[in-house]
Amino acid sequence: MPEPHWMTETRTAYDTVAVDYDRLIPEVVEGPMDRGMLAAFAEQVGRAGPAAEVGCGTGRITAHLRDLGLDIFGIDLSPGMVEVARRRHPGLRFEVGSMTDLGLPDGGLAGLVAWYSIIHLPPETLPEVFAEFHRVLAPRGRLLLAFKAGGCLDRLAEAYGHTVSYDVHWHSSDRVVDEVTAAGFTIHARLDREAEGFDRGPQGFVLATRPGGGTRA
Ligand SMILES: C[S@@+](CC[C@H](N)C(=O)[O-])C[C@H]1O[C@@H](n2cnc3c(N)ncnc32)[C@H](O)[C@@H]1O
């Protein structure tokens, strides 16, 4: 099947902006609530097994989670972003791939984080992507999502100083929670917060578990 147009546009855009994305957002700029979600995810996954950041971009969040103790690698659609990530964080593994078809074995991950990467998914593709996240996570594996919340669409013509053309979807938090639940996850926490810093609107965060395999807090 040919690649959907939105995916080609997203890859092209991030290949174009990769070096300047890294220059403008070199490390973790997230505030305390967002870092709290990352810290909770890191503590829950611990050393239970490998974790992946899907849509890792330049690897700044992958490196942060590594520093919090995770055995983590990154996957991204954009070869340009992956090239920057490999240069910036030579001790970490980064691969080119899409969250629509991760090419990972069933049940091999203890944690999966998608930090502002589902914002490029058309809403109708959320079920298939969350099914893919469920497939690659082990029972009791943890899922963390961060996204721009709202339920509208931005068509970008300029980003990080470049002319581009791609979509940013502000997903409805309720819809994300519903789709994550429908894919078979148990929701542990959701955070809907107002804009702060450079945010242009509210932000959503969801922490969930793939059930099964006995109990764990
Ligand atoms: C806003 S950036 C976030 C990058 C990183 N998580 C961070 O917080 O700096 C979105 C990233 O998602 C990636 N992405 C978009 N669609 C993707 C897909 N279908 N599969 C994998 N990565 C994707 C883009 O290439 C881009 O690097």
TrEMBL record:
Gene3D superfamilies: Vaccinia Virus protein VP39. GO terms for biological process: methylation. GO terms for molecular function: methyltransferase activity. Keywords: Methyltransferase, Transferase. It comes from the Bacteria. InterPro entries: Methyltransf_25, Methyltransf_Superfamily, SAM-dependent_MTases_sf. Pfam families: Methyltransf_25. The keyword Transcription regulation does not apply. Residues 53-141 form the Methyltransferase domain. This is Methyltransferase domain-containing protein. It comes from Micromonospora mirobrigensis.
